[in-house]
Amino acid sequence: MKLNLKNPIVFFDLETTGTNITSDRIVEICYLKVYPNGNEESKTMRINPEMHIPEASTAIHGITDEDVADCPTFKEVATNIAKDFEGADIAGFNSNRFDVPVLVEEFLRAGIDLDLTKRKFIDVQVIYHKMEQRTLSAAYKFYCGKNLEDAHTAEADTRATYEVLKAQLDMYNDTLQNDIDFLSEYSSYSKNVDFAGRIVYDDNGVEVFNFGKYKGMPVAEVMKKDIGYYGWIMNGDFALNTKNVLTKIRLRETGMLK
Fold first, then answer.
1. Predicted local distance difference test score (pLDDT) of residue 133
2. What is the rounded CA–CA span in Å between residue 89 and residue 3?
3. Among residues 235, 56, 63, 102, which one has the least CA distance to residue 246?
4. Contact indicator for 24, 16 with CB cutoff of 8 Å
């Protein structure tokens, strides 16, 4: 089934040095941009992470330090990547929990605060897990009837994710709607305020903490009664995006941000 698009949508996948969204770096990115008229543009690039790629990560994606030694750093290509993502909705496999937060962190480290507040996010893994409960390779076999060759390469995984979503629309046409707003809502477990999900919206649309001793409590209320908690987060091992979001809430509540 062809996607019913109002805006372009970017399917993307990252290979990284590890799984920590605050400290690990991108070593490969592939994205497939699909336009409402059906046209497609695809880009794949290796990135020098400026750090050692652990052997455990190389064992998964096959990328070594030597492979990326002469590749550009993320900061050197960030502006061009941001232009390709600008104005587009975003989709991936486990992207809401990992790929999007990692990408946002890389942009922030490069000095680019890409505004994604009006974008829709579709996580094909969430749809798959709600329907079938398996992995991308199994999803590709199940929905598309093909073996996923070169799994854990960004290009293969990106293309497979795009094909799986279209096949999901065909298979679950009585449940899923070919509508980006619907798919974005359906593929989200919670309404995140920050991409790491440390702050979420409750049922009343109020920003609340989603972790720690203040879990479930309104952020604005916590900031009033325990300003030290703000300092603890700002000095802690939290995502830059989380810190930025928290700061904006604090400034808004103190009247310094209109």
1. 65
2. 12
3. 235
4. yes
Q: What are the per-10-residue average pLDDT scores of the chain (258 residues)?
A: 95 97 96 97 97 95 97 98 96 96 96 92 93 85 92 92 97 96 88 93 94 96 94 95 95 76
The tokens describing 240, both together, are 């830059």
Q: Tokens standing for 12? A: 């993307």
What does the DSSP 8-state code read for residue 48?
B
Using alpha carbons, select from 178, 17, 100, 242 the residue that is nearest to residue 232: 242
The number of beta carbons lying within 10 Å of the beta carbon of residue 248 is: 12
- Count the alpha carbons within 13 Å of 214 in the hemisphere toward its beta carbon: 22
Strands (E), 110-214: 121-123, 199-201, 207-209
Strands in 70-166 per DSSP E: 89-92, 121-123
Q: Where are the beta strands (DSSP E) in 98-230?
A: 121-123, 199-201, 207-209
Identify whether the C-beta of residue 161 lies closer than 8 Å to the C-beta of residue 139: no
Q: Indicate the length of the chain as a whole number.
A: 258
**Spatial CA neighbour of 65 closest among 79, 86, 47, 38:** 47
